[in-house]
Amino acid sequence: FEYLSAGVNPGQPAVASNGYILDERHEASPATATAEASYAGGEWTVVLSRPLASAGAGQHALAEGKQYAIGVAIHDGHTNGRFHYVSM
Questions:
Q1: Which is deepest, 45, 59, 65, 79, by most CB within 10 Å?
Q2: Is residue 17 a contact partner of residue 27, using CB atoms and an 8 Å limit?
Q3: Three-state secondary structure call for residue 29
Q4: Residue in 19, 54, 14 with CA at minimum distance from that of residue 34
């Protein structure tokens, strides 16, 4: 599975990471994803982006006009072991 991740903290720029997970997690170095985040009114807005073309191991090429299944998971990084809130 390919993943994109954004580390967010109020007042600081978002930190993007990406890679893929098979038998273990493999992180792209350097990250080919970017992240933008803002916090207002008690809510986060996060935009993750990456090139449509495959940029490395574990990435799938994407094409405009095609449909793809995605999943979203939200974790709290301020706990021991990253508390998992929800998956969609």
A1: 59
A2: yes
A3: coil
A4: 14
